[in-house]
């Protein structure tokens, strides 16, 4: 059974490589598949509220110690950035191996504080002004390594996504895309107790940016403690329906809210049953799947003309053996045309720029 499954996965992966030819090759000249390991070895550097660096959040940086100008992907952890990045080393390392500076931002404390955009901007300021020097001088990174922050992407998991949305409501800064994973709105896990939100159902957000939203089938399922990890009214379509740029909605139907975490955490969840999860689904395949979706989205947005075929990966079920339900709202975007982030304040609701 296992052999047959592996064989089918191999067939699927081969089919994907044949269909979308990414323009990246490894050091042996082999094509790099967005759903497989990337071409770079990755180093990890932890910054812990280093106030001497004017930093009051924790940053975990995963980056290639190699020549290049690597785009930045921020990743805000769950519960409003209060989950340590250590829960996500597999996901973040494999993302970075495709040639990005992945910066996980988190801070233990009240998720309510994370609704203040200043919280996250301090981290961005550090990345844009000090990170490259720090990696060169303290970590011995090669001199031709550069933090390509002019091409930045903002991603978040669970309630970390409201931090990302709050950012876009203020300023596009250097962000080119938004990645929402199991997005949850609100400052309280009990829907009736929520007093702060970033999305108002029935209203569009006041920014326009290409968005990838990944959700799971078990997100809205109520667990043994009587709560869903992503209650239906605070997650899923609440975000998708509010977006005004091209938005892909990918639902990994067999997976659960925290299946993207490292095995130690998902094993613990199997015991504690904190978020509903199916112990039979292969979690490592799911992480590879998420990396492939994110890499396809980022490389598509960075070069929508040359890499337009990568968007097909966001609209296809069964990649790496992960079944999905896929939806796409173009919101007026002409496929394969250039993309950018703009603020669309409510005074000009029909502002259009594509
Ligand atoms: C950086 O990563 C490489 C490749 O994984 C590893 O061999 C090396 O020990 C790492 N450097 C440090 C200082 O950890
Ligand atoms: C980065 O590479 C340089 C040159 O090979 C090496 O001296 C330095 O220790 C590496 N840094 C890390 C963090 O591995
Ligand atoms: C939710 O609100 C109820 C009623 O006000 C309160 O008793 C309860 O402690 C609240 N729960 C949380 C987690 O805030
Ligand atoms: C994902 O799809 C499953 C199966 O159709 C559905 O039960 C679930 O509500 C969907 N999840 C979200 C967040 O849309
Ligand atoms: C966008 O909307 C949010 C939430 O309503 C608001 O706080 C923010 O000031 C708005 N931004 C702009 C630039 O109008």
UniProtKB/TrEMBL annotation:
Gene3D superfamilies: alpha/beta hydrolase. Keywords: Signal. It comes from the Eukaryota. Residues 1-18 form the signal peptide. It holds the Pfam family Chlorophyllase. This is Chlorophyllase.
């Amino acid at each position: 059974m296992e052999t047959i499954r592996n064989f089918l996965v191999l067939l699927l992966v081969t089919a994907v490589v044949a269909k979308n030819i990414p323009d990246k090759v490894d050091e042996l000249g082999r094509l790099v598949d967005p759903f497989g390991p990337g071409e770079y070895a990755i180093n990890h550097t932890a910054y812990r509220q280093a106030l001497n660096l004017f930093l009051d959040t924790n940053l975990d940086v995963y980056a290639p110690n190699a020549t290049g100008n690597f785009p930045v992907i921020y990743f805000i952890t769950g519960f409003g950035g209060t989950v340590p990045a250590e829960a996500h080393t597999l996901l973040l390392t494999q993302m970075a191996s495709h040639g990005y500076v992945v910066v996980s931002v988190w801070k233990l404390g009240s998720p309510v504080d994370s609704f203040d955009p200043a919280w996250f901007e301090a981290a961005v300021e550090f990345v844009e002004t000090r990170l490259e020097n720090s990696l060169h001088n303290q970590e011995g990174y090669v001199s031709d390594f550069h933090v390509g922050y002019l091409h930045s992407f903002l991603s978040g998991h669970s309630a970390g996504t409201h931090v990302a949305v709050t950012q876009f409501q203020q300023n596009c800064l250097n962000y080119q895309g938004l990645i929402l994973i199991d997005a949850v709105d609100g400052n309280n896990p009990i829907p009736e107790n929520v007093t702060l939100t970033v999305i108002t159902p029935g209203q569009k957000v006041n920014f326009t940016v290409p968005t990838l939203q990944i959700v799971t089938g078990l997100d809205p399922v109520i667990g043994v403690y009587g709560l869903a990890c992503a209650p239906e009214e605070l997650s899923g379509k609440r975000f998708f329906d509010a977006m005004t740029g091209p938005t892909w909605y990918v639902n990994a139907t067999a997976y659960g809210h925290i299946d993207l975490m490292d095995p130690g955490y998902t094993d613990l969840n199997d015991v504690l049953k904190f978020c509903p999860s199916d112990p039979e689904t292969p979690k490592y395949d799911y992480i590879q799947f998420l990396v492939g979706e994110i890499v396809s989205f980022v490389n598509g947005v960075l070069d929508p003309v040359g890499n337009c075929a990568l968007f097909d990966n966001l609209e296809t079920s069964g990649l790496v053996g992960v079944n999905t339900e896929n939806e796409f709202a173009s919101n007026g975007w002409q496929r394969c045309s250039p993309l950018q982030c703009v603020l669309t304040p409510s005074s000009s609701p029909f502002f259009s720029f594509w």
